[in-house]
Amino acid sequence: MKQKTQKESSFGSLLTYLKSRNQVIQRYYDQLDVYRELRNLIVHEDYGREIKLTVPTQYTIDEFYNIRRKFENPGQIGDYFKGQVTTLNTEDYLSKALNCIRTAGRSKFPVFDQTKFLGLLADKGLLYWLSYHASDQALDITSVQIKDIINKHNTEDIFIYYKVKHPTTSIYEVADWFEKNQRNGRHHSVVLISKREIIHQPEDIMGIITVFDLPVIEEKL
Predict the structure, then answer these.
(1) Which InterPro entries match (predicted)?
(2) Given Cys at both, which of 32, 137, 167, 199 links 117, Cβ 3.0 to 4.6 Å?
């Protein structure tokens, strides 16, 4: 903690200082504070060499080192969520998106107009469009293009909220981001992994994280 803060302060002071500045410390603050009190008991108890009233268990020691490891190397989203992302072009047909949902379980599609990134189309947006046109007679989904869906509806009804994150972003930061969005009612938020702040082409997207990946994130925290 001294190395990260460049402060020559006590363990307790550094713990308090980093509580609002470091996601790992924030998550494990209560546990670390107990360890701080345990450390003080061990250091300050004086009953002679033969008497030790406070002895940390191996479990406590292992947990402490586990938190230290996460503090020093919290893990990056690029380590866990890199992978091929299915994208759509405005010239693609609706049948392609539905087929990807059915066969590959894909439900979030970055949409491009040639080399321009338009947004993130989700199964929710597709369902909205299908329900809107449910009364149309003899609707042929093989003739409907993605641009037809986008151009006929408000983007907020079709696209979902996303954030672009660098692959070196810690999983703690992403976990906090999803948690804040859940509290704000954005239950279908998505993280796109890219080395670019602004996405220009499908190759810029290195991976995608959705709410369905939260169990994996929790496992790594």
Answers:
(1) CBS_dom_sf
(2) 199
Nearby residues of 93 by Cβ (< 8 Å), 6 or more positions away: 141, 142, 143, 144, 145, 146
Question: How many other CB atoms are found less than 10 A from the CB of residue 73?
Answer: 11
CB 161 within 8 A of CB 190: yes
Paired tokens of 215: 């169990």
CB 133 within 8 A of CB 141: no
pTM of the model: 0.75
pLDDT per residue, tens digit, the chain (221 aa), is: 998 889 999 989 999 999 988 888 988 999 999 988 888 888 776 655 666 667 788 998 899 998 998 888 888 999 999 888 889 999 999 888 888 888 877 788 999 998 789 999 888 788 877 777 766 666 777 788 889 888 876 777 778 899 999 999 999 899 989 989 888 888 788 999 999 999 999 999 999 999 888 888 888 88
Domains and CATH numbers, the chain: 2-73 (no CATH), 79-220 (3.10.580.10)
Confirm if 139 and 93 have CB atoms less than 8 A apart: no
